[in-house]
Structures are given as C-alpha cells and as structure tokens.
Design goal:
Number of helices of chain A: 4
Largest interface: A-B, 20 and 19 residues
CATH superfamily of the largest domain in chain A: ACT domain
CATH superfamily of the largest domain in chain B: Thiamin diphosphate (ThDP)-binding fold, Pyr/PP domains
Oligomer: heterodimer
CATH topology of the largest domain in chain B: Rossmann fold
Helix content of chain B: 25-40%
Order of helices and strands of chain A: EHEEHEEHEEHEE
Shape of chain A: elongated
CATH class of the largest domain in chain A: Alpha Beta
Strand content of chain B: 15-25%
Largest sheet of chain A: 5 strands, antiparallel
CATH architecture of the largest domain in chain B: 3-Layer(aba) Sandwich
Number of domains of chain B: 3
Number of strands of chain B: 22
Strand content of chain A: 35-45%
Number of domains of chain A: 2
Largest sheet of chain B: 6 strands, parallel
Distance between the termini of chain B: 71 Å
Helix content of chain A: 25-40%
Structural class of chain A: alpha+beta
Structural class of chain B: alpha/beta
Number of strands of chain A: 9
Number of helices of chain B: 20
CATH architecture of the largest domain in chain A: 2-Layer Sandwich
Radius of gyration of chain B: 24 Å
Chain lengths: 163, 573
C-alpha cells in the first residue's frame, strides 16, 4: 500500500543522508521525496511516499524514529489528509494542438506559465493521480519534458506536526 | 573561563567524562590531539598495532565494564581500519565513542592526502555521528556522543574532527556541559505498566513456559532481575549466545544456549512452549531457524528497549518497550503482590518433559581413545583450570561455539564474543580491553589458528603493557566452521578452508617475548593448563592440536523449526 510519511527533523548537514541511507540499507523503497526548511529554520520538513505492507511500514517508521535527528514523524495516510504535488511540463503546442492543450489545461485548472511559438510550459498542482491523469489527457506524444516536485502533505483538521 | 585549543578540549572532555583508557593509533590528522594527550596523565592512551584492534579492545573494555569504550584514530586508513570494529560493536549494541581525525576542513572534498568520508562510510554502522564544524562545538559534541552511546539501546558514536579545528594556536573558552538536552532523542526509561501486567497474567497462566534471554539482559544490567523472575516462577531459562552469563550457567533451571548450536533441551523446550518470555533478545536468524516455523504454539512476550526489534522477525503478542531491568523489576514486584502463583502442577509436568529431553543429551562428543584430542575437551579443561571464573573472550567459528557450550558462565559480562557480526580477529584485542579494565582478573582468549592470525600483531601490544592474557588456540589446522558446512552441504569439498603453512606459534609467541606451549596429547592438557595459569604475570600462548574432523552439534537443520536438529554426524531429530 502507498503511504505518505511526513518527518520533522533537525535542519543539519547529513540528516537527509541518514534518512535516504536507511532506506537503501534496509531495502525499503522511496517513490518520492521532498525536503525544505520550515518556518522554524532549525527544522526541516521531509515528506516521502513509499509502499509496503503494514509490517514493513511499521519497521520503516520505527527505524526512522530511531534516527537521532528525526524529531517527529507521522504516517499521513493513517488519517484524513491533503496531498499536493506540483508539476511543470513542456508540451508541444503547434497547429490544432495549440488550442486543444489550452483547453485541457483549463479543464485541469492548470496554468500556462511560459509560451513560445511551438511550446507551452504548463504548471499544474494536485494529487499524484490528477497529475498522471493530465499527462494521459495531453497524450505522451505531445509531452516534451516533465518535472515533478514529489508529494507534500499535511493532515486535515486541527492536528499539527510541530514541536 | 579557561581557554583551550580544540585538541586540549578533546582531551579535557575525555577527562571530564571520566575516561580511563583510550585505545588508538596516531597519524597526521590527529597529531594535535596526540600532543595534548602527551601533556596530561589522566587519560591513559593504549597504543595498539592496528586500528581494528583499537576498536575491539575498546569494545572488550565496554562489554566487561558497561562503560563506553573510547577509540582515537587518524583520518583515511586509520578510520577505515576501524570500520570492522565499529560494525562489531554496532551489531551487539556496545557503547563506544570513536574519535576520528579528518583532513583540515578547507580540504574536505578535494581528495586530500588520507582523506576519506568517515561520516558517510560509517553511517550504517553507528548509532549516530558528528562532524566538528567549529572547535567551539567540541565539548558539546563529545558530551552528546557519550550520552547517545550509553543510553537507550547502546551503540557506537563517531566524532569526526578536522585537523584545523584542533590547532594549538586557536583557543576557545572551555566548559563541559553538565547535562545533555536533545529534543530529538529521548530513550524510553519505563515500560508500560499495563503491558507488564498483561505479561504477568500470561506468565501465571502458562503451562509450558520458557524464559529466553539475550544480550540486552547483560548490557542492561538486568541479570539479577531476570534471575529473580525465573526463580520466583520456577521457569526454565535459556540464553542466547550474547546472553550467556545473564542467568547462571550452573543453575538447575538453566537449559543451556538455544539456537543454531543450542542444546537439544533448550530448542525442544522453545518449540513446545506455550508462553515465551523474550527478554533483551531480538529473535534473530541464528536463534529462530525458519521464522515462519518458529515455536508454533507459543504466545510471545517481548521486552526490548528498541521498538524496532519487536515484531521484526517474529510477531510479539505482548510487546513491552522499555529497559529490560526496569521492566523485569516491575514484573517481579507485580508477581510478589499477585494473589496467585504459577501453575505448579503443569510446571511439574513441564519440568519432567524437559528432564526427559535432558536425558537425550544433545551436548556430547565422542572421545578418541588413542587419536587426537577433541576441542570440547580443551574448553572443559579450561573451565576446570580457571574454576569457571575467568573472563573468556572468543573469536569466531567452531571454537566459539564450543566455548559457549562447554564453559558454564555464572556471571554476566564474563563471556565476551562477537555474536552479531561474527568478527574473526575479535578475541585477542577484546581480551586486552578486558584485562585493562580488570587487571587482577584471569582473562582467557579462546581462539583458533584461523582467527588468531587476523589480529596476531596485538601480541606486541600485550608485551608493551604486560597483559597476562592466556591464549587458548584450538588448532585444528582448518577453518573448522567453514569446513563443517562444506562437509554437510557441499559434498565434503573443502574449498579454501584448510590452513597450510601455519607458523610455529610457540616460536612466534616467544619472539614477541611471551611464553609459548604446544600441546598435542590429552594427557598433557590439564598439566599444561595449570602451568599456564600459574604464570600470573605472563601471556601464555597455548597452541593445542585437536581433531580436525570434529563438528559442532547440535546444529539446526536449515529452514526447519527450532526442534529440527542434527545431534551428531549421523543422528537427527
């Protein structure tokens, strides 16, 4: 099952390599990974998506918690949550395609953030599923380049992951 | 405030931490630190002959005292040589602080002379690591290193120190922190009382219980509590390789070691148990055999300070995360206050069954009337010669298993071996660490002609410091455990498992200034042992020739359950 694990950790050199190292060392899989400082510059927020059965996920969270620099972590998929990913994409935009791509971007509520005579650069935010649906809708043949940020997530309601 | 250089701060922090011994080897990147060490006499530096031995010696010191072992090595090869010893300590949860030199900070990343990314290299085998980025961080980092190494589930911590941060001309105000505060590290100090109560109820209902205790009981100083619980309940106890000595080896409730080379009665009792109290043990593959077939009828109560050890290989029915000593003590209090006791009737039947298994006597060997002596006889002679009281360190292989099976350890920390990593070359340097920590004690290193040659250079260190270790070299002229597997699983094809061109160990010992003895006949064995242990201030290297064809039994049959064992070359369960 796909899980989103969100980690609050010390914003220190080497901390990220411990998290990533743990995954390769113990044969766990990282599908996406995003990391950036939080409003408190001594802390980083790291979000990763991984897959595994309950037993594996339990081991992953236990081992992550053992890392000295990990302050707190939560498996967002255990409760109601919001997940977002941002995608930048260059799409061929020539001839009849030019209008068609524009319409598809509008349907997905994306934005065209850069234009040339042959290419649109599209920005789209949403869940992983939505981004994938957009790629399919545009058609792989039209896609020139895709950059995705990886998943960020936050729990719904009043629950917060902070110190 | 006192002004000190980075190097002086390192040494002063060690003093303030109460460090008696530091095991190390000098080199370019740590010269400032060595100069600071030279100018004081509180921390004794022990010069080894190879950095791997420094880590094993610090490890032996730590295992025999419970205090963190301390290591100082230089950058590059000094640091990489220490890796095996750090991994050894990591696998067995041994508290250790390793200080490694690093090239000057402005050269890091430039492939400088003797540069290696030690923080990166050691990352999977340390509990934590620090890189000093400013000399002012040194006192705090060293304090944290000792704190992290010795609390929670202990383990090695590395502090990597670039040379420029120890330069003598730059001084900084020094104050050693009194306390450590870390928002991201808070080891558990108590087990959950509700869980402990559930466990107690389960134990009191048990009809066929076994207490299975591991290295955590030794490292967590929980032997007394464990023994208290076992005696109170009259339950059988088995120890892992790492747990030997946690419960007295000569006690009638003791079933011997369990697992791959465990006793018949210990493995049978485990397989047939209805409740297993696993204390400070991690149900690793050398114990469980096939985890899917492990003890099918047993409810498992698992006490461990590390939540990640619980339900990793085998699912625990009642998990208790906490220091094993505190949990067992609370358990004992609850048992004392409980209205009812254990199920004596069922226990009586259970003990009868166990005694029946004891009659089968899996721990046995055939004596050669006129042929070469058996390795088991050597361990038994050692037991006799030392009244069962010696610290015994071992290397890795058949001799290690014989030393685990045939020497009965009555005290925790008496038996010192590399269980998790299985590091050949561990025994002699570990014995050095034990002897430094216990100068008056009898220390024996049980080894083989394969293992001893992996750190034989330490005979020189032993001479320098006058360490009267007794080396029991069980010499079968082969890598015995490798050969045993080749006999059993590879059609007897002894690929690279024999030792040709062995040195004359007697002359070798003598050339290092020690006493050497060669023993080839059983009738000479007891006399030689007595003679060797009478030489109280000398290292004696006993080169003892044994039957090269001997195997270690019992032995788990691969992919079977706990009860599936070879009992000899021809008998199996």
């Amino acid at each position: 099952m796909r899980r989103i694990i969100s980690i609050l950790m010390e914003n220190e050199p080497g901390a990220l390599s411990r998290v990533v190292g743990l995954f390769s060392q113990r044969g766990y899989n990282i599908e996406t990974l995003t990391v950036a400082p939080t409003e408190d510059e001594t802390l980083s927020r790291l979000t990763m998506t991984t897959t595994g059965d309950d037993k594996k996920i339990e081991q992953i969270t236990k081992h992550l918690n053992k890392l000295i620099e990990v302050v707190k972590l939560v498996d967002l998929t255990e409760g109601a949550h919001i997940e977002r990913e941002i995608m930048l994409m260059k799409v061929k935009a020539t001839g009849a395609q030019r209008a068609e791509v524009k319409r598809t971007v509008d349907i997905f509520r994306g934005q065209i953030v850069d234009v040339t005579s042959t290419v649109y650069t599209v920005q789209l935010t949403g869940t992983t599923d939505k981004l994938e649906a957009f790629i399919n809708a545009v058609g792989e043949a039209q896609v020139l380049e895709v950059v995705r940020s990886g998943v960020s997530g936050i729990s719904r309601g009043e629950k917060v992951l902070s110190l | 405030m006192e002004m000190l250089s980075g190097a002086e701060m390192v040494v002063r922090a060690l003093q303030d931490e109460g460090v008696e011994y530091i095991f190390g080897y000098p080199g370019g990147a740590v010269l400032h630190i060595y100069d600071a060490l030279f100018q004081q006499d509180k921390v004794n530096h022990i010069l080894v002959r190879h950095e791997q031995a420094a880590t094993h010696a610090a490890d032996g010191y730590a295992r025999s005292t419970g205090k963190p072992g301390v290591v100082l090595v230089t950058s590059g090869p000094g640091a990489t040589n220490a890796i095996t010893g750090i991994a050894t300590a990591f696998m067995d949860s041994i508290p250790m602080v390793v200080l490694s030199g690093q090239v000057r900070s402005d050269w890091i990343g430039d492939d400088a002379f003797q540069e290696t990314d030690m923080v990166g290299l050691s990352r999977p085998i340390v509990k934590h690591s620090f890189m000093v980025r400013d000399p002012r961080q040194i006192p705090d980092m060293i304090k944290k290193a000792f704190y992290i190494a010795s609390t929670g589930r202990p383990g090695p911590v590395l502090v990597d120190i670039p040379k420029d941060h120890t330069a003598p001309h730059n001084t900084f105000p020094y104050e050693y922190p009194k306390k450590v505060k870390m928002r991201s590290y808070a080891p558990v100090t108590r087990g959950h009382s509700g869980q402990i109560r559930k466990a107690v109820d389960e134990l009191l209902k048990a009809k066929r219980p076994v207490i299975y205790s591991g290295g955590g009981v030794v490292q967590g100083d929980a032997s007394e509590a464990l023994t208290g619980v076992a005696r109170k309940l009259n339950f059988p106890v088995t120890n892992t390789l790492m747990g030997l000595g946690a419960f007295p080896g000569t006690d009638k409730q003791f079933l011997g070691m369990l697992g791959m080379h465990g006793t018949y009665e210990a493995n049978m009792a485990m397989h047939n148990a209805d409740v297993i109290l696993a204390a400070g043990a991690r149900l690793d593959d050398r114990v469980t055999n096939d985890a899917k077939k492990f003890c099918p009828g047993a409810k498992i109560i698992h006490i461990d300070i590390d939540p990640a050890s619980i339900s990793k290989n085998v699912t625990a029915h009642i998990p208790i995360v906490g220091p094993v000593k505190q949990v067992l003590e609370e358990m004992l209090t609850m048992l004392d206050e409980h209205d009812s006791g254990p199920d004596h009737k069922s226990l009586e039947r259970w003990w009868q069954e166990i005694d029946g298994w004891r009659q089968v006597h899996g721990l046995r060997y055939e004596v050669n009337e006129n042929g070469p002596m058996k390795p088991q006889q050597v361990v038994q002679a050692l037991y006799k010669a030392t009244n069962g009281e010696a610290f015994v360190t071992s290397d890795v292989g058949q001799h290690q298993m014989f030393a685990a099976q045939y020497y009965l350890y009555d005290r925790p920390r008496q038996w010192i071996n590399s269980g998790g990593l299985g590091t050949m070359g561990f025994g002699l340097p570990a014995a050095m660490g034990v002897q430094f920590a216990h100068p008056e004690a009898v220390v024996a290193c049980v080894t083989g002609e394969g293992s001893i040659q992996m750190n034989i250079q330490e005979l020189s260190t032993c001479l320098q410091y006058g360490l009267p270790i007794k080396i029991i070299n069980i010499n079968n002229q082969a890598l015995g455990m490798v050969r045993q597997w080749q006999d059993m699983q590879y059609g007897g094809r002894h690929s690279q498992s024999y030792m040709e061109s062995l040195p004359d160990f007697v002359k070798l010992a003598e050339s290092y200034g020690h006493v050497g003895m060669k023993i080839e006949k059983l009738e000479d064995l007891d006399g030689a042992m007595e003679e060797a242990f009478a030489l109280k201030d000398r290292l004696v290297f006993m080169d003892i020739y044994v039957d090269p064809t001997e195997h270690v039994y019992p032995m788990h049959i691969a992919d079977g359950s706990m009860r599936d064992m070879w009992l000899s070359k021809t008998e199996r369960t």
